[in-house]
Amino acid sequence: MGTAPFALPVLESLHCHGQDIVAVYTQPPRPAGRGKRTRASVVAERAEALGLDVMTPASLRDDEASAAFRALDADVAVVAAYGLILPRPVLDAPRLGCINLHPSLLPRWRGATPAAHTILHGDRETGLTVFRMDEGLDTGAILSRHPMTVPRRATTERLESGLADLAADVLPGLLGRLGHLLARAEPQDDREATYAPKFTRADGRIDWRRGAEEIDRMVRALNPRPGVHFGPASAPVKVLEAEVVSGEGPPGTLLDRSAVVACGRGALRLVKVRAAGRPTTDGDAWLRGQRLAPPARLI
What is the mean pLDDT of residues 84-107? Predict the structure, then answer.
């Protein structure tokens, strides 16, 4: 059961190790891209290529969907970045329950965007947690935890990819001793829980009064969605890549023609940007196109 690219290595691992995959559940096709054409999830596309049965219910809460799931007579459901709530009848249907591969060291960063919050908050360690699902938000008992150092200058995409590969590596051995792990599952300590909700467009608005390192983490954490931007709402400029450099001045001030901007602490060079309706370009090339020069102020 998966939808996002994070689930692809898990699906490949199950298939390559000869597991009997009775069905692949993924979210229904949705509009995507500039043309907003309806497109199946990457998991659906790969599962169909592998000749697997693909199920795309919009919800699992109705009796018909629950009955169809129960009729599969599965031993276990492996869940990775699925995106739908599993109600109690679904959780109880497989003989060994439903296990989730979650890209953080629970109970830290429960929720939808753990990798992005890991980067945004400057965590140096993350990892994969495998837990038996219950009706709470990533609250189930832990079967195993697999720590991983956060790579230097990691982006959300890069970190999720590394954690997905880790999930694919540990899954075959874990399934082989699943009964033993379930018997020894450890409850989470809710007092240590932190949460990773989805980001909104407003979360990506740059406040130049923040420190350069904090804004740099924003850029690496929130791209490509919802993106990090500055400028007027009618013509925002997205920052796709940046780097912390030396420099100081009033926050938002251009310090030189290489697109170095003063922040509340330190300075940030805009490496790659994309203005509304324009292609991606180097920060200094964007400045020249806008005829901006120091000490202009960015908003």
Answer: 97
